[in-house]
Amino acid sequence: MPNEPLVSGDWLAARLAAGADASPAPRLRIVHVSTDRKLYDEAHLEGAIFSDLHVDLAKGGKVPETGSVDRQYILPKRDEVEAVLRAWGVSPGTHIVFYDDAGQNRYAARGFWLLLVYGFPHDQLHLLDGGLKAWQAEGRPTTVDAPRIEPIGPNETPERLTDVDRTLLATADDMLAWSAEAGRGGMAATRALDVRTLDEFLGTDVRARRGGRIPGAHHRLYTDFLTPDGKFRDRAQTLAILQGSGIRPDEIRATYCQGGIRAALGWFALHEVAGLDQVRNYAGSWEEWGNRLDLPVEQ
Predict the structure, then answer these.
(1) What SS3 state is found at 131?
(2) What's the structural domain count of the chain?
(3) Torsion of CA 76, 77, 83, 85, to 10 degrees
(4) Neighbours of 6 (CB within 10 A)
(5) Are both 10 and 131 inside the same structural domain?
(6) CATH code, domain with 205
(7) With the CA atoms of 100, 104, 109 and 110 taken in that order, what torsion angle do they form, in degrees rounded to the nearest 10?
(8) Domain of residue 251, residue span
(9) Do the domain assignments include residue 1?
(10) For residue 143, which of 30, 13, 43 has the smallest C-alpha distance?
């Protein structure tokens, strides 16, 4: 398969048909990401396995940087992600297709970005455009039957991961440096793109110790990069949306939100669809920044 990060229903249906003698199709793992197992049980794609966003792709708990604050979107460690791949039965060469039932594919985008940041082969990762809702709107079949998956055993080799790819993950230090860069000399360059709601951006919707935004950040709601039916806008439309807000696409260094989920969707639109390969996802996002009293806040 060629490198096709964003795939259509036709693309996936053709590959499922080609592997109709096996479920799921050979060397293809379809992953339904959700926060509610009941939604998966009600309807999912044939051969799709269930992935809980808050178990597989984001971890709850406390970290030293934010002290006693309970967090929901901590980046899983490499060995935790490898354990997930083993449970999913992902052997070398397996292609993974992510989709979700949230209607905007932000959960699926998190899965795509997370595996890529740990070095999963880019040409083996795909995101189903429009997710479950688009698949159903196109009249394609779903099922309530969960497939039987054989996990990768301890003596078998799963798809190997690497250390974090720092060209895809922004840290708080990166964001602080870019924030200073954005305001230097009155240039007002766009370095951080805040994709939360406007109330979060303005600081009236407070979801951490402090409300507000990273100084110098510009705002575009993450759903602006999607069409009304939940599919991604194309490259030209994505760039036009940014330019229409006075944002130079080549100046953007990272997207952020509350916990790196909506930001993953924004990152996918900019990095994978629009080809802005300098853009990273600040996965710590406001859950880290707003809870760290040593970092500046703008309101």
Answers:
(1) helix
(2) 2
(3) 70
(4) 19
(5) yes
(6) 3.40.250.10
(7) -80
(8) 172-289
(9) no
(10) 43
Greatest pairwise CA separation for the chain in angstroms? 63
Asked if the structure places residue 156 within a domain, the reply is: no
Question: From the CB of residue 16, how many other CB atoms can be counted at a distance below 10 Å?
Answer: 20
Tokens matching residue 44: 């999912």
Q: Is the pLDDT of residue 24 over 50?
A: no
Domain-located, residue 152: no
Average pLDDT of every residue of the chain: 94
Q: Is 216 left (phi over 0), alpha (psi -120 to 50) or beta?
A: left
Sheet order of strands, 218-219 included: 218-219, 192-194, 254-256, 280-281
Specify the higher pLDDT residue, 23 or 169.
169
Give the confidence band of 184 by pLDDT, cuts at 50, 70, 90. low
**Higher-scoring residue by pLDDT: 2, 172:** 172
Our CA dihedral for 175, 180, 181, 186, rounded to 10 degrees, sits at 140
Distance CA 285, CA 260 (A): 6
pLDDT bin (cut points 50, 70, 90) of residue 25 is: very low
191 and 283 belong to one structural domain: yes
Q: Which two tokens stand for residue 68?
A: 């006693």
In a domain, 151, yes or no: no
The backbone torsions φ and ψ at residue 99, rounded to the nearest 5 degrees and listed phi first, read -150, 165
123 shares its domain with 225: no
Q: Which of 90, 112, 137 is the last residue of a domain?
A: 137
Going from the C-alpha of 191 to that of each of 187, 188, 236, the distances in angstroms are 11, 9, 20
How much is the pLDDT for 182?
Answer: 83
